[in-house]
Amino acid sequence: MLRVVACIDGSRAAPAVCDYAAWASRHMDTPLMLLHVLDEERYPAEPDLAGSIGLGSREQLLDELAELDRKRAKLALEHGHHMLDEAEARVKAAGAAEAVKRQRHGNLTESLMALEKETRLFVVGLHGESSSDRDIHIGSQLETAIRSVHRPILLVPDEFAQPKSAMLAFDGSDTAFKGVELLAASPVLKGMPVHLVMIGTDSADRWEQLKKAEKMLAGLGVEITPAIRDGDVEPALHAYQDEHDIDILVMGAYGHSRIRQFLVGSTTTTMLKTAKKPLVILR
Predict the structure, then answer these.
(1) Could you tell me the residue range of the domain that residue 38 belongs to?
(2) Residue-wise pLDDT tens digits, 163-215
């Protein structure tokens, strides 16, 4: 059974993750799973202090340190269970019929990859636990997950607003058309008007590619608006999104165009850091 998987942590984005996941579950008519990943590096299931044995080490001290690590891991585990219980209450209040709760030891990327076969959509907060009002931090785990997971990922900001429109950043490559095909078969944008946006010089070839993609999305039964904008990828996409007040930006990790370079290159961090609205990453 495919599920919407909401990744819950102690960040300020967690309530919005719950709200967007509940919305996606209802919108896509897909069961919901709440996932909490206990970082193995910070809270190992079994402490390993072998590397601490050195000059001046004492066996009693090592035992005490190991016991302290066990207590920290146990408290973190209990805290995770409480977060999952609170998340369950929130998604049910938001209209989700039910939610499966799961807790895993490991890192985010490994945990998401392990759940890929039973997942239709991952929902992850843009800002992690280490973020603050002064320092909005995009963790390396999130960037690694984006590059590794082959299921759509909905990256959400700290505040929830029900999505009503979407835009797809399209580059015209063969694999981009595969992304359009995936989107056409998915309920993720069901009922939403969709803007198909290419970044580059206006040309007949690009319009032909847009028209082909538009026909592929016709089965969604919604208004499709093709557009071409010149300029640098990041500001051009943001400007179009702002101009048309679009709620969700959909991008694909495919092709070798400027959009791919933008998505998997150094600009990724800037985009995620400045995003104020949800993004869907297609793989």
Answers:
(1) 9-42+79-156
(2) 999 999 888 888 788 889 888 888 888 889 999 999 999 999 999 999 999 99
Last residue of a domain, one of 156, 191, 206: 156
- Per-residue pLDDT tens for 5-61? 999 988 888 999 999 999 999 999 999 999 999 875 555 555 554 545 454 556 776
Tell whether 248 and 124 lie within a shared domain.
Answer: no
Among 127, 162, 184, smallest CA distance to 247 is for 162
Residue 72 lies in a domain: no
* Phi, psi dihedrals of residue 191, rounded to the nearest 5°: 80, 0
Q: What does pTM read for this prediction?
A: 0.83
User: Could you tell me if residue 238 is inside a domain?
Assistant: yes
Q: Are residues 94 and 192 in the same domain?
A: no
**pLDDT the model gives residue 57:** 54
Cβ atoms of residues 156 and 22 within 8 Å: no
Shared domain check, 150 and 177: no
